[in-house]
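Reference record
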Amino acid sequence: MSEYIHKSHNVTVLIYHLVFPAKYRRVVIDSHVDEVLKDVCLDIEKRYQVKFLEIGTDRDHVHFLVQSVPTYSVTKVVTLIKSITAREIFKRCPQVKKQLWGGEFWTDGYFASTVGKHGNEEMIGKYVKEQGMEYQKLHEDGQLALF
């Protein structure tokens, strides 16, 4: 369960859903790799300001539900998790390194999405609208933009 993180000048709850595919989408994640991955992630929690709310594995990719602080960008969180987990999996599961021809464990890409603690965009909009006496919407953009 996520918690509010209290710092000297802010209170945050930043939650991300991250998906990392194994290199070449190879089926390399088994029960032994699951156990190593879980142990490594719990060790990461002890050293960095990252909390793993949930870890789920499929045979060729892993889903993480991660909470972090604003000083850690999404890229920093992803790089941190990918580098440490890959190094430790190769160290503790040498058969995986052989299956991946001695290369990398994760693909270069990943999926990242923010997750709301209190609902979706519509619910937050309703909450904001109900805060004041006379709410006036100044702008709404319902179209996604391609950057």
Notes: The domain at 10-116 is CATH 3.30.70.1290 (Alpha-Beta Plaits).
